[in-house]
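Dear colleagues,

As part of the handover before I leave the project, I'm documenting each prediction I ran so the next person doesn't have to rerun anything. This entry is a single chain, and its sequence is reproduced below.
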Amino acid sequence: MPATAHDHAGALCPVEPPPLLPPRTLTAAGDLLRALAAPVRIAIVLQLRESPRCVHDLVDALGVTQPLISQHLRVLKSAGVVEGERKGREVLYTLVDDHLAHIVVDAVAHVQEDA
């Protein structure tokens, strides 16, 4: 039996299922969501949404040790979420694009609605 929805007049009408995406796309999306799934990584993304930061800025802002921040940045970098640019002795981290920040911001907003 096909799915149905109501039109503006309240009548039932069939709904076409969305097209199936290639498994490779679904796997990549799952990998990305897993990379964002740690509270510290969510906090890092929110910090980088405001401005580029180096590791010591993130340590100060989040109250987490430098090795832990570096570990989480490696995960985010390998997932393509952040990129780093060397500035002298430090690396300045930025978000690769705003789409990822929107995912995190929307997730946080959704949770706050239920609180």
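Residues 98-114 form the longest helix (17 residues). The mean pLDDT is 89.

All the best with the project,
I.
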